[in-house]
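Forum: Protein Structure Q&A
Topic: Joint prediction for protein chains with partners

I've read a bunch of threads here and the consensus seems to be that you should model interacting components together rather than docking separate models afterwards. I'd like to see that in practice. Below is the full input, 888 residues plus whatever partners are listed. Could one of the regulars post the assembled result?
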Amino acid sequence: MKTLNLKQLFTQYKILALLIAIAIIWAFFSWKTEGGFISPRNLSNLMRQMAVTGIVACGMAFVIIAGEIDLSVGSLLGLLGGVAAVLDVTHHLPLPATIAVVLACGLVLGLFNGYLTAYKHIPSFIVGLGGMLAYRGIVLGVTDGVTVAPVSEPLVNLGQGYLSPQMGVVLGVGLFVLGAVLTWRQRASLARHGLPVPPMWRDGLRLAAIGVVLFAFVRTLNSYEGIPLPVLLLLVLLGVFSYVATQTVFGRRIYAVGSNMEATRLSGVNVQAVKLWIFGIMGLMCALAGLINTARLAAGSPSAGTSGELDAIAACFIGGTSMRGGSGTVYGALIGALVMASLDNGMSMLDVDTYWQMIVKGCILTLAVWVDVATRSGRR
Amino acid sequence: MSGYLLEMKGIVKKFGGVPALDGIDLQVRAGECIGLCGENGAGKSTLMKVLSAVYPHGTWDGEILFDGKPLRAQSIRESEAAGVVIIHQELMLVPELSVTENLFLGNEITLPGGRMDYSAMNQRAEALLKELNLTDVNVVLPVSNYGGGHQQLIEIAKALNKNARLLILDEPSSSLTTSEIQVLLNIIRGLKAKGVACVYISHKLDEVEAICDTIVVIRDGQHIATTPMDKMDVKQIIAQMVGREMNQLYPTLERTPSEEIVFEARNVTCYDVEKPERRKVDNVSFALRKGEILGIAGLVGAGRTELVSALFGAYPGRSEAEVWLNGARIDTGTPLKAIRAGLALVPEDRKQHGIVRDLDVGQNITLSVLGRFSNFTRIDREAELKVVSEEIARLALKTASPFLSITSLSGGNQQKAVLSKMLLTRPKVLILDEPTRGVDVGAKFEIYKLMLELASQGVSIIMVSSELAEVLGVSDRVLVMGEGKLRGDFVNQNLTQETLLSAALDHS
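Posted by a regular:
Agreed with the consensus. Here's the joint model:
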């Protein structure tokens, strides 16, 4: 009976299993590196590494929930990062202009992918595969196959800058208050509709856990330099994407399209437009990720973002997004990205050979999806 | 108590602590046909899944004796080896494979080296189909060449090929036409004569009456009664199923349909998706009055679903249609445009085209009108829930909460949710394609009542249905289609099933 409860608990709170997995991974690397892994400096670095994959994973979560896939994001990220570098280094454009142009390019290319998928009925897998090759080819053409450097100071700051510690504290407190308000409002709403309200201790415990995590997060990062700007951006995106997914008409339609496109279409939803904009958003996220990546490396590299699509897709699946579409969460995808980044970072610290890193990541991805499938309630 | 081929004793099956079956007994003799009756959600399908080991031995309590020996199958394969074969409501054929390949799927006859012995299999397949009097089937052609009725019979042949001694038929006739049902019933009679036992599950009680020797009624997971058919009639079965007397199958409501024509379809033509030169619907035109219920009858494949899909902009192939509403030509090129113009369609295939599995009951209901609850982008959950609660109450939709998964509801309640979703768009013309397929008697009555109420409020309704009794029970006027053409237009006064059927079959 006890094991049953445990299984039910995991089925209900899949996220719990993931957090435990992260705890185990972190504990292992900390032990192996004699604490080096959980030093504030390394964690700050880890978070920054994760930001690029995380930004792409946000968009990818929507794409996969809608029942599609986008394989072109790695190349698109590289292309847009390259465009950013070229605009900055060769054309000396001011930073806001660079950002605007890159975002616009990302949106247009994303919408183009979406147009081919939604209106021309080319399977997104093929559109992605084609894009993966073509966009990478354009990067090589634009950069002549050489690294574009050095990138200007303001742009570098975007990837390597920090939020001041005071602001970090304000942010942490703000997020905690937001969490408390949302929990309280949810309880009130459940009660008003005569639905079972979870016991006070459980919500209290959850809130306390959020508080502890936020405190540890802000404190650790502040004891190095502060919250890295890419991580701040990722937090903002997490908020925006979660809001869109759970609170808006567009978000509801993403889930509906992914779960049963035909029924959704017959309900009078313009499913083609929904798909078009999902890919548009994906393109925007590639633009952001490309900018951050170029800024972080202080250079536009022609190979930037190679296999980035695989990391993002893996993050989504580890985070519990369904392959068939129709279910999944953005925070799950980000936790998945954290798992991938932790593995990368820890194994690099241990000087594990690249080939071993790939083997381990591949196994973890397969294992995570197996656990997800095995704990799914329905047998089909 | 021997002499029974199958004995199920005290079967209890729980889902998450809630009993779906609460101590059911069932006995079947060789050569006997049992009619298993009960409303949706009564536990019929669950019981048959226990029997056919979809739920393996150990996940339920009780005992199954087959041929006097305990049956403890762990998988469908094991129960089939014992001789229990289930034919599901949904067809389980692979459309791209040939008839032979389907018949032998999983039991292929092989030559040394694992090659398929096609000549042996084709021969056996032809013999099997001949036994079923299915002589117009070419066994080497893909199954997709044949219609739903033939496919159902091929399923039965497949079961016989497994040496079935007990055949479970779960709603076998839901996609069959009247004449095809007769063929099916004759085949079952033949099987009975050969000593094959059957468990027949159907909402169509006239079939149950025609074919079954014994009626077993279950309700809410409880065994209600086992009665020989010759001591019962359909009325009594219904009374046992619903636990009360059902005096009428169709509600009545005093209405005065107006003469005003609100909707017109002119020259509707649909071309086959695969073979574009073939016409599935051939130049059909009709008009609809305000507050009128128009039934569209016909055999399966007559083009009825294609016709209404084309009117709603949902036909997958090429189609031409001129649609007029209130004297103005409207564009119904896509479902979205059709809904905006004032049309609504409740599709035939609830699973594929009706419900969205990953959304909860409430979210399914509001899917069509989500924009109404949002200012700019955010969904006003309070307003949404208010409408959902009103809808659940209005349609008497049985669900413990709007937050439950739509898949946890019975077929009838899922249908009400889909209906509610389309009604929220406040249509002027409501198109219902087989609105009561797989829906139990109680919910059927409620759906008919709702249709009459809507009609009396001035909504015009088009109802496509394969159940002639239902067409006659609720329609004001009946169109009959056959081979893509309009074959008759009758006012529903002293109209009989025979008239409709002969119109549908007419080749002149």
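The mean pLDDT of chain A is 90.
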